[in-house]
Amino acid sequence: MLYQMDRLEAVTDNLANSAAPGYKKTVSSQSAFDAMVEKASVPGMPDSGYSQAARRSVDFSPGPLRTTDNPLDFAINGDGFFVVEQDERTFYTRNGRFQLDPNGQLVTTGGFVVQGRDGPLTLPPDADLSQLTVDADGTLRSDERELGAIRLAGFSDTSVLNRVGPTLFSAPADVEPEIPQNSRATNRAVEGANTSIYEEMAELIGTTRSFEISQRMLKQLDQSAGETIRQLSG
User: Fold this and answer.
1) Does residue 197 form part of some domain?
2) Which of 22, 92, 112, 211 could make an SS bond with 84 (beta carbons 3.0 to 4.6 A apart)?
3) Could you give the CA distance from residue 26 to residue 165 in angstroms, rounded to a whole number?
């Protein structure tokens, strides 16, 4: 039942963020019972085996790319993340829906500053955004004029990343990002969420039914135990 509750929470998050650009769905998996028993028998391991029943992970598979008319919408075709900062903290995202702040800095819709190769990315005030293009490596151009370059970062093992928001991730202090080798930046496009509403709805129904079945079984066991106690006490 605890696993089904965790699974239900993951499905709810996926449904709530199914329209968020760059969202990566949460997956809840269950440990086999014999594996939990074996782990609980190891000295020093916690004996509350139920806490190990559910494990959460993030599915980093790419979502579909959707073309837009906004030159400040960006997407990554392949591996990698955009690098953004706030309060001197670095985060990674696949949500490339950017905009310009009053100072000309490229920022996310949440106000996080998009990083270029040499720090925060600022576009010149006279830049013609209608002609803005981006090279595969993130270099920005307008009318053949180079305006800077969006920084792209990659991780050989994305499982080390921690989700800190619907489309934001952080890396441990001892993990350094790499230059992604199999990625291509593009603009006038955004990456959609890699979750399907229909699949999540089917998962929601199945999870709810599994929880209800487990609940009925638990109730029957409780009634059976109560009847046994009454018989023994009589």
Assistant:
1) no
2) 112
3) 12
- pTM of the predicted model as reported, rounded to 2 decimal places: 0.80
Is residue 80 domain-shared with residue 179, that is, in the same domain?
yes
Number of structural domains (the chain) is: 2
pLDDT in tens, the chain (234 residues): 777 778 888 899 999 999 999 999 999 876 555 555 566 666 665 554 444 556 789 999 999 999 999 999 999 999 999 999 999 999 999 999 999 999 999 999 999 999 999 999 999 999 999 999 999 999 999 988 999 999 999 999 999 999 999 999 999 999 999 999 889 999 999 999 999 888 888 887 877 787 777 777 878 887 787 778 877 776
Both 159 and 92 in one domain: the answer is: yes
Residue 189, token pair as written in the block:
């496009």
CA dihedral 170, 118, 125, 188 (to 10 degrees): -50
Please indicate, yes or no, if residue 198 is contained in any of the structural domains.
Answer: no
CA–CA–CA angle 26, 196, 70 (5° rounding): 95
- Domain co-membership, 110 together with 130: yes
